[in-house]
Amino acid sequence: MQVPEEDTPMLAVCTDETGTLFLKHVPRPELRDGQLLIQVTATALNRADLLQKRGLYPPEHGESEILGLEASGVIAAVGLGVKGSWKLGSEVMALLSGGGYAEYVAVPEELVMPVPSHLTLYQAAAIPETWLTAYQLLHFIAKVKPNETVLIHAGASGVGTAAIQLVRLCRAVPIVTAGSPEKLQFTEQLGAALGINYKQDNFSEKVLQFTEGRGADIILDCIGGSSWEKNVSSLALDGRWVLYGALGGKTVDGDLLGKLLRKRGHLLCTLLRSRSLQYKAELVRSFTEQVLPFFKSTDSPLCPVIDSTFNMEDIEKAHRHMEENNNIGKIIIKIGTS
Fold it and tell me: Treating both helix axes as pointing N-terminal to C-terminal, what angle do 128-135 and 277-290 enclose, rounded to 10 degrees?
């Protein structure tokens, strides 16, 4: 495979000051030492993309301004200083700090993973950001143990569907909240022991009923402010409440600290995008060793959940689909014009 020239243009999704997305030819990324250049086949949407295009979640200093936190494709070039035995044309998937909405992306080799042989590149695009986030929440932050009860908010989301499967993999018990009967039915088919419609029921009451008053050992929460009191009520004594988003607001009005103190609860806050390369590399290494082998057979206990697939030129439609909150699992974007 011929190494592409860095000044050769590539097609990318760009954003203007109003948050409007459009296709534009831009220079290909410069390949730094220790990086691989990936010719992107597909990327996947994340809630962070919706925030970034509105100027609310900018990339880290020095990282690509182009949206996209994960991608799959083939290796197009290998930079100087790369230590792994990566080969041109190999199918890979990668965790990104940005740049996934483009035909090429340069990635530190530590953040690149091989694609399991029976998965397509479109399926693989649904794995890196979502599954690594769920893995980080459960194992690096909450340190989940067998037989613990894990309450997963937004259970039909990309992170939610990954978390259900990872909780089952470590022999713990996943229970979820979601906003429609269809989403709840899907999560239960995926392995959730209990599905709660947060629009119709008080989820804390349902959690306490299910656990016979004990509460959830772990809560994975991307909602934040609007549900804090129910989360504290749902939490078991000495439980771990992991906050990784604030879709329901960032402000709290009430006796949060007092209620949490009485539960001896642990409030653990985390993000992935702003973590160091060293941290992300260790996360990718651990995931590759502990989880990726379970994707590598046709009867695998793990599978990426894909809601829909859009062409690159339909990126605005794809974002609207996520904004409407009707998706179950990941929204995939095919890179390149159809």
Answer: 90
